[in-house]
Amino acid sequence: MAAERLMVLYGDDSVEVHYADGARLLLSPCGSEYLYEEALPAAAHPLQPAESTRQRVPFVLSAYREQILRALDFRNTFSSRPYLPSRIISPERKRIIFSDIVEVRWPDPVSADLTRCIKNGSVKISSVDGYAHLYLSELQQEFTVEFLCKVSQPFAKSANQPSHFSPKNSNYETEDQYGKSSKNSVPEMSSKQVRIDNKNNEDGHAEGKYREATKPNNQRDRGGVPLFYTNCTSEYTWVTQRWSVSSCPEEWKYPLSLALMCHSLHTAKNVLKTCEENDRTSIGADVSTDPKTYEAVSRLPAALPVSCRAPHLHRWSFCDFFLQRNEDSEQYSYPQLIQIVWCEGVFYRFIHGRRNITEIYPGDESLLKSEGDFLGNYFVHYAIQKGIKKREEKMYSVNSLPPDVPGSQYSVSSIITAATKMLQYCYKTKLSLIHNYHLCCWKMVPETDGREMLPVLLYEKVIHGTGRLLVYSDHKVHAAFWDGISLNMVWDFSSCYKKIQVNEDVGWCKLTTPDGVQQLIQIRHPGIYERYIRTVIGWCRSLNESKETPELTTHTVTEENWCADAELEKIQRFNFLLDNSNVLEGTSAAKNNLSIRKTESGSGPEEMSEGHVLEALQNTSRIIQDIESLLASAGK
């Protein structure tokens, strides 16, 4: 089995894996399907297509089983909702539990001794019931969570149906769809990247172990599960997830605040107030250190169902950004936002939203981070000096990177350059008017077929002699100037930014010249295109200050709304065909006679309006009669 060379998690939670022998793997966003493309032989013809296999993950072929498991582990580690079918999980990774674990309660900071939770600079917070654990790294920039979850369940389950187990397919049937994988098999990430102490792992798992009945082997099913309690148990597995402190999910904010408080208490205890102040200013977390701000009970993430409700939204084309041999090439087959990249032992994380952040984990427990006004231009290198446990920070400029150090584990210049290229690719995708990267099969509403994820046009303004401005619900602004220049940027029209507008979402804008050449231009350094950029910024600011500011509200999309829109589209198509068809031969002649009568009689606009309405009604009635006669003759 060839080793992984590159692993990518895209914005829609799909996974793409490149192997050392040239093979490629594509995993659907929900994880339920995969496409494996074999490597071409060396003597293959250039036009010879590669052999590919597409199948559902629960029925994966044995030849690809290990690759699929590693790809799923990679996806589950960085995705908000994991996918873990019971068919392909080894029995050693499963736990049989007699209750449904839906939520966990964390300790009270008043009664708990938080100073005992820290060891070697890292903090461990465990839930009261032992079902979940949180580990905060010494740098306080990333945390890892481990929790028990129920394996993925089928769709057809009633709300109050008890758990059942089928020995034939090793699937439990329960309403609550919970489940994830435990031990992470992502390449080179368990020891150096996650940095969870083995002893802590043992203690954590010991807290979550449960007594299993001891029955003879002949009374156990194929998976080693005792048959006498398969009708009243549920199957669980340990899940490991990694999150940035700068973008913490809601369910982990309380334990993370406990961990941050524990670290601050430990710092104060060792009389390192200067270091404490530096830590607090450089963490950049969106989590308060006061646990009272959040709920002490966390609802655990649910696993996705075994099968997907919208398999037609799965894409089966590889993104060729990582295969571009020509660095000047601007066209990519399928643009997608990038979330996580693993390449040669280095992790790259890209956080998209109001706070855009780029993080690089080289593998030596250090971190390179770029955010805010410095995004894509400067990277701050955080590291802990060995022995003295002192926090060290360095800043690197993208335009003046340091030379490689002989014998170093990695090249700072190479990883920053690679991260900058991936960041610019994400900006090109964001600033394009292609909205397909918003589509995700497991996030869509079934009644709308994913259409609720597509942005809508909120505002349109035409300025004579200058151009046209379009504002969309996903904060995108498209400006088309009369001289052929078009410009795309991101602007937040939320009410909280009306007085102070900060373009932190995207520090670049995309400009397209009349001959089709696209360029990424920094808003702060527009160069010769300053006139266009300042004009669009002025338009957006005027919209913020005026009463016509578009409201970016979230509308509940129902099936009835889409049906009404579809009927309106049909009417518009019908009117178009009516205006551009020759079904009624006397239409044009009647219009000419009507215009001649208007000129001769000098009739007013009211008479003309009534005449047009009458004629339109007569034409519509005739066409409907023709259609009915055609349908009647066809039925005979």
UniProtKB/TrEMBL annotation:
Residues 453-542 form the C5orf34-like C-terminal domain. Coiled coil: none annotated. Signal peptide: none annotated. Residues 158-172, 179-193 have a biased composition (Polar residues). Residues 338-423 form the C5orf34-like domain. PANTHER family: CHROMOSOME 5 OPEN READING FRAME 34, ZGC:153352. This is Chromosome 5 open reading frame 34.
